[in-house]
Amino acid sequence: MTDGTYVLWRQYQSAISMVQRRGFDYRSEEDRIDTEQSFLDRISVHVTDTVCIIPESFDRTVLNKTMIHRQRKKSLLLMFSNEASVGRKYLAGLVENMHAAGISHCVLIYSRISATARKDIEKLANVRIEIFSEDEMLYNVMEHVLMPEYEVLTREERIRMFGGKTALIKEHQLPKIMVTDRTARYFGLRRNDVVRIIRCSETAGLAVSYRIAV
Which pLDDT value is given to residue 2? Predict the structure, then answer.
């Protein structure tokens, strides 16, 4: 695997791992690309045979996936942009396609994005688009040896733990995590989401804490 194909493989692998940790999985077995070789086999027709590199014209949309949440059965579009810079026109087309497909949630991997497109994303009401740069996808933040486990609490879990009269602490009293934090973005946290953080220590064993996204 050359440097160019390895970079693309890392980006793809990190993006898939990120959405799977949120509870999403492949829509069908045909969509599955779990190894470097299966990835190379899938994109081999798009690379230059003589030098085995990805040309500038490579269509990254061949890596796009519609993922399905294992419990909620809701769809998520994992999108790899071909644009040198994502602008308002591209964004408008993406939103239109999402509406047509009945999908309200998209994770968009981009090379560059304009300031106006960022503002438009923040104003979207009926669809949710999360943006991650290609550079961010080169490294999976959860693979670090010191990174604890994160679990996003369901509404039922939150009510059971913090909503009763006997609850020792209320949600608004929890330590905070910014939605702009890299780990919060990795898990797609929105304001008022609550996460369980599990740390493993050789001396203290398992240590569990909770944070609320702000």
Answer: 57
Domain boundaries, the chain: 3-138, 141-213
Q: What is the DSSP letter of 151?
A: E
Compute the Cα dihedral for 68, 190, 131, 104 and give only its sign: positive
Can you give the pLDDT at residue 50? 44
CATH topology for the 3-138 domain = 3.40.1340
Domain 141-213 has CATH 3.90.940.20: yes
Q: How far apart are CA 171 and CA 37, in angstroms?
A: 46
Tell me if the pTM is above 0.90: no
| Nearest partner of 22 among 197, 184, 181, judged by Cα | 184
Go through the chain and tell me how many residues it has: 214
Tokens of 153: 């609490």
Grouping H, G, I as helix, E, B as strand and the rest as coil, residue 94 is helix
d(CA 64, CA 185): 20
Tens digits of residue pLDDT in 147-206: 899 999 998 999 888 987 778 788 989 999 999 999 999 999 999 999 999 988 777 788
